[in-house]
Amino acid sequence: MKIILFGKKFLLIIALVLAGLILASFWASRTVSGPSKSLPIYCVDRDDTAISLTFDCAWNDDDIDDIITVLDKYNCVSTFFVVGDWAEKYPESVKKLSEAGHEISNHSYNHAHYTSLSKEKMKYDMDKCDKIIEELTGKKNNLFRAPYGDYNSDVVNACIETGRFCMQWDVDSLDWKDLTAKDISNRVILKTKAGSIILMHNGTPNTHSALQLILPELAKKGFKFVPVSQLVLKENYAIDHTGKQYSTTQKAE
Questions:
Q1: How far apart are CA 101 and CA 109, in angstroms?
Q2: pLDDT band at 21 (very low <50, low <70, confident <90, very high)
């Protein structure tokens, strides 16, 4: 029988190799999962069929009356994320939307890239837009959507620190790309599910026509339109890695 003896140097090398493998495995797992990142709300985990139709308003107001008419026809209460300087330019349109029962929310003051701003400048900009909204509608707002959907942890945390919900979307109509009304409606109808937040825009050629296809079809599927402030959970919630907001109370149960 052979007895193999290992020297101290050999054993030291083996120990270092094993330690290296363990350390590599640890950092690999950290790389896969990544550090925790603050996320906005893309959609909401609902046990009903509620969804939110939202509009970003930053260009003109040519189609506001038509949009209000079709939304009213299908009893669809929506949320309009308005840019502050757009609201200053078209105050009557903001008032019309609010008086028609729609929610007016914050899309920044002048559509700047928020990820290039300091957190202090973000908060100043949000406050400036909210002040205009309150002056025109008489209502306070606590929803914010970053211009271009461009966000980082500072953007989300600036909202959290000021009591705002940072909103995104999970259904993009791409209406701003001048798609046909049929193409826009197909995208929205196919992708919408309970708790979805749909992104559309005013001031585009085919949004109004697309709405006339989208709204009756979604209603036929049993979806209920509510403004974003009624869709989101106000307390005891978390946001998963996909941006879905869910109740921590229900998960605990």
A1: 23
A2: very low
CATH of 43-252, one of 3.40.190.10, 3.40.50.300, 3.20.20.370, 3.30.870.10: 3.20.20.370
Which two structure tokens, joined as six digits, stand for 127? 């406050």
Two structure tokens written together for 21: 């493998």
Give, in order, the Cα–Cα distances in Å from 194 to each of 32, 59, 81, 109, 222.
29, 30, 21, 31, 10
Q: Note the pTM of the prediction, 2 decimals.
A: 0.85
pLDDT digits (tens, 9 = 90+) for 222-244: 999 999 999 999 999 999 999 99
Q: Please provide the size of the chain in residues.
A: 253
DSSP conformation class of 41: B
* Cα–Cα distances in angstroms (integers) from residue 172 to residues 16, 49, 59, 68, 198, in the given order: 51, 19, 18, 20, 6
